[in-house]
Amino acid sequence: MAASEEHDSPTEASQPVVEEEETKTFKDLGVTDVLCEACDQLGWTKPTKIQIEAIPLALQGRDIIGLAETGSGKTGAFALPILNALLETPQRLFALVLTPTRELAFQISEQFEALGSSIGVQSAVIVGGIDSMSQSLALAKKPHIIIATPGRLIDHLENTKGFNLRALKYLVMDEADRILNMDFETEVRFLFQNLVQKLQRAALKNPVKCAVSSKYQTVEKLQQYYIFIPSKFKDTYLVYILNELAGNSFMIFCSTCNNTQRTALLLRNLGFTAIPLHGQMSQSKRLGSLNKFKAKARSILLATDVASRGLDIPHVDVVVNFDIPTHSKDYIHRVGRTARAGRSGKAITFVTQYDVELFQRIEHLIGKKLPVFPTQDDEVMMLTERVAEAQRFARMELREHGEKKKRSREDAGDNDDTEGAIGVRNKVAGGKMKKRKGR
Ligand SMILES: Nc1ncnc2c1ncn2[C@@H]1O[C@H](COP(=O)(O)OP(=O)(O)OP(=O)(O)O)[C@@H](O)[C@H]1O
Ligand SMILES: [Mg+2]
């Protein structure tokens, strides 16, 4: 069993990073030739630090807690040993990867497919918010790898005939601290206690901690700034910054679905190519937004913390914390959406009169005092009128949107978009999930 990502109380001494290991190749780590070729084709010329640390131990079958900074290749650090082991002893339903968000599940599946395409690896993504019948069919084909969010996986374990995880050899929890926190408590307990019998120890057996960065570190090539402004000027400053840094790709984080939607509408009214991603959108819209942003058809992605973990979009240049994160740790994950895999990037955090304490906590956590992002206040103020007008339109659109949504909810019945188990509701509905037409 392998766990990846942060863990608050690791049980074993960490492995020091050995400098000379920097020159190691994937082959040196024990990765089989065909997978080394796959790495090569992805442009992975040499393993990253966490891959150097974790892969040989994972290949020995050790339980692992992996910690490394954002964008440092943790996915490959668990995917490669799993694929390697799968090649040695081919077997269906070989590994399960749990993730906290649906988008991350799709991304991890893409990584497995990219690394495993030449060896015919089949994976299935089992997440909420999309048709459950087609997932049952995919599970009936017994894929090698399942990548799942906890709630929907449990639904299938309870309701999909013939599907179980008794043969499972590898379990990965990506963003483990997030999966093991309270939101998924019931689901995780259920998975550990009832299903993965072999792994019933529910934790790790003599695990090795592979830590290649200090705990709460942001990456070196990330330039971080803040701006301190009155709350009522947030929109105007945002527009100013987007103009100043025009030509870049932005991820802008907001604290609520509503503000994400509102800000997206506001920016669109001002002619920006902005697109929202949040939990009140249908899953097809969520993936649609993400794909448009990934394909550079939109330059601004506005998101809640649903997008703060794990998403790997290499061309993101700037992360804006439009609403300051309430949990300081989320700050590190959010800003980690840029400056990935050795690239550089910028992060700008909006601090209002209400956010001072939260901001100080963030600075304390990352162990840095951040500089101010320079702004020309007179230029900012010249934008106020246009922004005020766009705000009015956005409010109107939001209201219309809300009413439309209410009507469609009354028509469609099922309008749920959460990660919770829907087994019960499924049964009530006679097993027929109505796909929600999202707005
Ligand atoms: N050995 C390698 N050489 C070059 N690039 C790599 C290597 N391994 C992974 N990458 C690339 O680095 C990027 C980041 O990888 P990944 O998403 O696994 O990071 P992560 O450590 O999981 O980050 P996060 O903490 O944000 O989840 C991806 O685009 C991936 O393709
Ligand atoms: Mg990751």
From TrEMBL:
It comes from the Eukaryota. Residues 1-10, 397-412 have a biased composition (Basic and acidic residues). It is found in: Nucleus. Residues 221-381 form the Helicase C-terminal domain. Residues 55-294 form the Helicase ATP-binding domain. PROSITE patterns: DEAD_ATP_HELICASE (PS00039), HELICASE_ATP_BIND_1 (PS51192), HELICASE_CTER (PS51194), Q_MOTIF (PS51195). GO terms for cellular component: cytosol; nucleus. A motif (Q motif) lies at residues 24-52. It catalyses: ATP + H2O = ADP + phosphate + H(+). It is an enzyme of class 3 (hydrolase). Its EC number is 3.6.4.13. Keywords: ATP-binding, Helicase, Hydrolase, Nucleotide-binding, Nucleus, RNA-binding. InterPro entries: DDX47/Rrp3_DEADc (IPR044765), DEAD/DEAH_box_helicase_dom (IPR011545), DEAD_box_RNA_helicase (IPR050079), Helicase_ATP-bd (IPR014001), Helicase_C-like (IPR001650), P-loop_NTPase (IPR027417), RNA-helicase_DEAD-box_CS (IPR000629), RNA_helicase_DEAD_Q_motif (IPR014014). SUPFAM superfamilies: P-loop containing nucleoside triphosphate hydrolases. Belongs to the DEAD box helicase family. DDX47/RRP3 subfamily. This is RNA helicase. It comes from Cebus imitator. The gene is DDX47.
